[in-house]
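Q: Predict the assembly, please.
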Amino acid sequence: MAHANELYLGKQDYQVLGKRPVRHDGTDKVTGKAIYTADVQLPNMLHGKIVRSPHAHARIKSIDASEALAMPGVFAVVTADDFPDLTEKFALMGEAGQVNLTELAANCLAKGKVLYRGHAVAAVAAANVHIADEAASKIKVEYEVLPSVTWVLDAMKDDAPLLHEHLRTDSMGKKADKPSNIAVHLQFEKGNVTDGFQQADVIVEREFRTASVHQGYIEPHAVVALWNEDSRLKLWTATQGSFNCRQQVAELLQIPVSQVLVVPCEIGGGFGGKITVYLEPVAALLSRKSGRPVKMVMQRNEVFEGTGPTPGSFARVKLGAKKDGTLVAGEAWLAYDCGAFPGGMIGPGCMCVFSCYDLPHAKVDGFDVCNNKPKTQAYRAPGSTQAAFACEQVIDELAEKLNIDPIELRLKNAAKEGTRRVDGPVYPRVGFVECLNAAKNSEHWKSKLSGKNRGRGIAAGFWFNIGGASSCSASVNDDGIVCLVEGSTDIGGTRTSIAMQLAETLGIAAEDVRPQVGDTDSVGYTFLTGGSRVTFATGLAAYQLGLDLQEQMKQRAASIWDCDPTSITVDKGVYKQNGHSLTFKQIAAKIPENQLDPVVGRASVAPEGSTNAFGVHIADVEVDPETGKVTVLRYTAIQDAGKAVHPSYVEGQMQGGAAQGIGWALNEEYFFDAKDQMRNASFLDYRMPTCLDLPMIDTIIVEVPNPSHPYGVRGVGETPIVPPPATIANAIHAAVGTRMTQLPMSPPALWKALSERA
Amino acid sequence: MKSFDYAAPTSLAEASALLAHANGQARILAGGTDLLVQLREHLREADLVVDVKRIPELMELSFTPEQGLRLGASVPCYRIYEHAEVSAAYPALAEAARIVGGWQIQSRASVGGNLCNSSPAGDTIAPLIALGASCTVVGPEGTRQVAAEEFCVSPGKNVLRRGELLSTIVFPPPAKSGGSAYERFIPRNEMDIAVAAAGSWVELDPSGKTIKNARVAITAVAPTPRFAAEASQWLAGKPATEETFAQAGELAKKVASPITDMRGTQEFRVHLVGVLTKRTLAKAVERARG
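A: Predicted assembly structure:
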């Protein structure tokens, strides 16, 4: 969709940015020639298979692999005992902070106890997948089944089954004296909420619940590990961060990072779920034991039961406003589960719950709670969607009670430059007001919706978008093509968005840059692909790389013209001095002709702070009151991209996030039975939306340049998943008058709510 | 997947003999869209897989308005909905054939296979029952006919004995003022398994206002697909109105005994039986009126 000029506040005269070149990796992907990890074949390669727990919580009494090892074609079996002793060992890992290595290892191979159904217990490597499969079934594990718990509030109770006997609640730095499943209690406070609520004319308080959902990437986890005789470990894998993967594996195996080489293959989606390692260290151990390369590829049920998901949550949100709609106070109490091990998404949940609004008084309490589910992982704006589901419905209800248009109420209280969030940071220039205005002026919002059981909803969302370290390098070829090597694994088309920024800086065409993602030996340290950081941070590195290359090209031109490089001017890729003029490509051709030094450039950056992306979504729905089924009739996503480097990708991110958010809203959930076993670990019964379940998702890109990037880039990938559940819930409320406070808002749930009301 | 023997007989007698004398567990392979997945996921085991697609009777589809439809057990779904006369004569069957999996599945999967897989939620089974289909079973002791509603006995199990296979499904000729419809409820719009489903067939009297005969079948709400006998009998002679359809829905609920699982609650499924019976009857009547 073309964006209107009034939505664009930045520089206009770009040569490359804002255009829509064909993506560099497109042809290989659509013709099936791109190499994914499962495509990697090595001589004498073995196939590994994981033995997984059938119980949600149990003590491992014994593991007997003798029968499996006696099978012809079986080469090695590993268990948790094959990891080095990691007691009391921690590692600093970027955003994740201090990582407890004992826990990270125990998530890869259970030690002592299994903490969720699907928890890996042992692994076997054999000549082919069929032998591996059969051998895995012959590894005898004896369990003592323990009581289990999967709902976050149940897990917080004093008499709940304990996952970790040694876990003590960390409450604002203070450790509790008795064991609990509550790993952390966080608190953020601004102003004085008691005073604040006293000023309120209207107060709305509600409770909300959300089920665990999975990232649902199309490519299951896969790895090929080769541990050589010289102790070099080479890993081909699908990861969101080759350097983060390298560090995790090195720490877990207690070997130096430089001994590990991670080759990132093409990746079939990650959404935050391919940051932590699962198979990599296990395949490495199997390779070391067997002396052969080992491939491991998960099946879909293993992906659901052994990886992901995002937290199931409980939220109580209270907001107070004056008659004119001015918000005076907010209070939130959030409990997110983190699954088997501490360290979930409660932090960002607490920071995001009120992040769209300027609240003079606010207080947020958050709890990180262990329960018998897979360890939760990041999923696109982790923690923010659950918080927005709560807050944005309370805002909607306030608007209704105050009889104020929901956009006007949000505009009145919108976070803007200078607003201080409850967790402290003060916003620089952000684009929330512009997004709300774009929503207000959209054809969708202005259109009339008529018909029985139909309603329109609107909701907003926020994600920080981080910076972090990024590196890239490039060489200029004789034909003027620039080969770019960058360190960010590409899950969202970032190779192209980075290449475009380099092309813009150099004044050459996007097609004249050939980008590739380097392995960990070929490119400088680059933090993971996550936090919507790559187009911003690695793009910033590409910009600086462009300046470096341009400087060198000036020097080469100066040699050709025998002049001072500082006397050369460059405009749109044309180098000029005193009547001379050469294009970038012409200089590139003259470098070998004149036997000049080849041009190789490099850049590395580590920007701090967040780039702050706001979004607003509008949905029209129709409810079938007889079945509780919701049909999404029309959907529009609006977002501030700062600068849309490649608008098609920005639109794709907005549409993809909205699609995932609608799935989360309507049908997706981890469905547990009475024994806390997931019963829908397949795409058939997990029910992500298909293309037949969604309308075309319209997009409106707003561009309020980010002051901390030369081209104004903000991240875009995560914010679009934040508003959908609240947007759909508000639309359902408008359609049938029932407020849905629990996800998913599936047909049985909505039908029940409607029939209970009747 | 465990290794197994494979045979592809070209006659019913040969197939029956292979099935009767197999060492260990023999499984019949038609389209394979259920069996191969089940073998891979260890939901079923096989020592011998007997591919029946080379047996001419099982790949036969013949239809005349006078004789009705003879549908070979391995005829893939697409041949039904792409057959204009069959689709017009048995719309409930065509509707079900069109939603068994996606296009790729429909080019392999057969109605006979769907019936023999005997899932409580099999999409084509409610239409078979509603349309009064009869199943021709061939075995070492000869041939027998089994009514569609008698075929399944429990989830995944049916009346086939050792050495027997389903060869043909026989549909009575379409009635003059007849119509049928199938509808399932799924939370999404495609690629899903029924939470509950109903198939209805009606024959109207010449006025088009009264139901002469009706058959209602419901699936995914009991261990086996169910013929709603009481609802069907009650409908005969009733006016073809919304009120009648709703009343029949209430009667159909009586034969539903669903479980609560990841696809829906017991309460919700029973409720859906009423809704879907009502909706399919209305559609069947509309079709009967032309």
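The CA atoms of residues 221 and 258 of chain B lie 4 Å apart. Chain B has a mean pLDDT of 97.
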